[in-house]
Amino acid sequence: MSSVSRRISFLLALVVFLLCFGLTIGTFAIYGQYNLDSDMSSDFVLAQLLNEEGSILTTHYYYSGDLNILSPILVYQAALKIFSSWHVARTVSIAVLLLIMTASLFFLGRSVGISGTTTLLCAAALVLPISKYHAFTLIYGSFYTVWVALTFFELGLIFRMRKKRPLEPILLIVFGVLGGLSGVRMLMVCGAPLLLACVICFFSEVRTAKNLREITALPAFPVFAGSLLCVASNLIGYVINDKILSNIFHFMEFDDMVLRPLAANRLPDQIIAVMRFLGYREESILVSTEGIFSLFTVALPVLGVTCLILLLKMDLTSEQRLLASFVLTGVTTGMVINFSVILDAQDIFSISYFMPALLLLIYAVFWFLERFQDRYVILRMLPMLLGVGLFLLGFSIYKDQEVNTYDDEMTIIADTILAEDCNEGYATYWLANVLTEISDGKIDVYTVDDWETGQLDTWLQREDHFTSEPKGRVFAIFSQEDYDNGIPGCDTDHLIYSSEKAYVCLYENVQEFHELRGDTY
Q1: What angle do CA 183, 188, 191 make, to 5 degrees?
Q2: Alpha helices, DSSP H only, in 112-220?
Q3: Which residues, listed in sequence order, are joined to residue 239 by a DSSP beta bridge?
Q4: Could you tell me which residues come within 8 angstroms of residue 15 by beta carbon, excluding any fewer than 6 positions away?
Q5: What is the 3-state secondary structure (H, E, C) of 65-112?
Q6: What is the full per-residue pLDDT of the chain (521 aa) written as tens digits?
Q7: DSSP bridge partners of 61
Q8: What is the C-alpha to C-alpha distance for residues 145 and 156, in angstroms, rounded to an integer?
Q9: Spatial distance between the Cα atoms of 121 and 450, rounded to a whole number of angstroms
Q10: Quick one: which H or E segment has residue 474?
Q11: 3-state secondary structure string, 20-52?
């Protein structure tokens, strides 16, 4: 391919990527505030607390299952310092995180000799939300975006170990330890499958070596050494997390996880979960956009595995062979872990624990297409552009069917509370953090586990909510079911807003609230 053709193809790929990226970000900019989730909003609540304390970690917060040492929180903190609007801050943060993920894929691709054109076209597909689960975990929720990017960066560093510079091993140690410090997740999405892939590829390379000297002289040896260094660093970080940090910070540990009874349907269930994650929609009419895209989601994993097998039969470098093996071991080990420990193997969110490998499975299709040289570059790009087009179809279905395009009352509830000169109160988890975000942090919500007891929830909440109480006027948000069941404190005398979604009551102070509820604490 001539240099002119390469430039033209790269520019075309760049235009396609920017189009897809713009559609994703533009959709959130317009509708994102109507599609918030308390899990998403909890990250911004934590970012606000960390900015107040001027830190990147705090002992004054109840984390979930991860310590968030490497997480989107750092990006959210920076955005909240720049923008007063939390919606603008989140929109900009999503854009930054997706660009980081794209850069990491580009770094990985260049490390094994995959062209920038191919990577950009694949990235154009990957930044498009194609299902609510995909959007929630990777695109708009951004829970796993950093972990995906970190995995890609680490793989890229490993594949550059042949240069024998100090930079790559130093960065591998730093990223590996930081990933392990956050919890077990990095070992699941990267460490375990990387170690397995390394063992498989290493023994295939050393079959002809007669002694240790010949083994260390192999061109692939630095790559294997880098893989082991990455996994060892992950383990060191995790041991520190488990033995030291768990005694300092509040977060859930996984020491009590047990193996589940094996059942014949668990592996097929995991395959079904993958297809649903990619946008498979049950009950779709076959000859419809939903039906066509659903068939594509069934074919895509099969196509990805087929392309990987064919790639492994080609003349690959040691780095390329390790990458292809990592994708296969990543998907396989992820599925095995999931159907061994998760109660419901069809749980869509279990896909998160092998998401980097699943995304690379899609990348493998584009990589395979690149291996076919053609005199006319546009003919070689047509199948890739068709793939991006199918992901655009999935995005349009997601937008039309699963994006809420109108205000879902939370803004009205927030405005009603603030109009009553009140900015502190109580709500259950699925309303609490969203209310804080929708009010740009003006409303501080104490998360109640349930209204039967009124006890606060030790999950994604500030610790000072357990040592102090709201001041001034206090609100409480109940459900219609709470009202119908006669939950204490939810009465018409204190009602300031009601709908099918929420009953908002206002009290002059926290003492009145506790007296009405009969609380003894």
Answers
A1: 95
A2: 116-126, 132-134, 145-159, 167-181, 185-186, 192-205, 212-217
A3: none
A4: none
A5: CCCCCCCCHHHHHHHHHHCCCHHHHHHHHHHHHHHHHHHHHHHHHHHC
A6: 567 878 888 999 999 999 999 999 999 999 999 999 999 999 999 999 999 999 999 999 998 877 778 889 999 999 999 999 999 999 999 999 999 999 999 999 999 999 999 999 999 999 999 999 999 999 999 999 999 999 999 999 999 998 889 999 999 999 999 999 988 888 889 999 999 999 888 888 777 777 788 777 777 888 899 999 999 999 999 999 888 988 888 877 666 667 777 777 777 888 888 999 999 998 888 889 999 999 999 999 999 999 999 999 999 999 999 999 999 999 999 888 887 876 565 677 888 889 999 999 999 999 999 987 655 666 778 999 999 999 999 999 999 999 999 887 899 999 999 999 999 999 999 999 999 999 999 999 999 999 988 999 999 999 999 999 999 999 999 999 999 899 999 999 999 999 988 999 999 999 999 999 987 65
A7: 462
A8: 17
A9: 47
A10: strand 474-478
A11: HHHHHHHHHHHHHHHCCCHHHHHHHHHHHHHHH
For 446, phi then psi, to 5°, come to -85, 120
Residue 118 contacts residue 367 (beta carbons within 8 Å): yes
Amino acid identity at 238: Y
**What tokens appear for 317 in the block?**
């470098």
Distances (CA, A) of 302 to 134, 292, 306, 322, 486: 19, 16, 6, 20, 54
DSSP character at residue 172: H
Residue 495 exposure: Cα atoms within 13 Å on the Cβ side: 14
pTM for this model (two decimals): 0.94
Q: What is the residue type of 175?
A: F
What gap in Å lies between CA 161 and CA 194, rounded to an integer? Answer: 15
**What is the DSSP track for 146-161?**
HHHHHHHHHHHHHHTG
205 Cα distance to chain centroid? 35
Give the Cβ contact number of residue 445 at 10 Å: 30
User: Which residues are CB-contacts of 489 (< 8 A; sequence separation ≥ 6)?
Assistant: 476, 478, 505, 507, 513, 516, 517
Burial category of 503 from C-beta neighbours within 10 Å (exposed 0-12, middle 13-18, buried 19 and up): buried
* CA 425 remoteness from chain centre: 30
Q: Which residues touch 18 (CB under 8 Å, ≥6 apart)? A: none
Return the structure tokens found at 380. 């070689």
What is the distance, to the nearest Å, from the Cα of residue 479 to the centroid of all Cα atoms in its chain? Answer: 30
DSSP letter (8 states) at residue 192: H
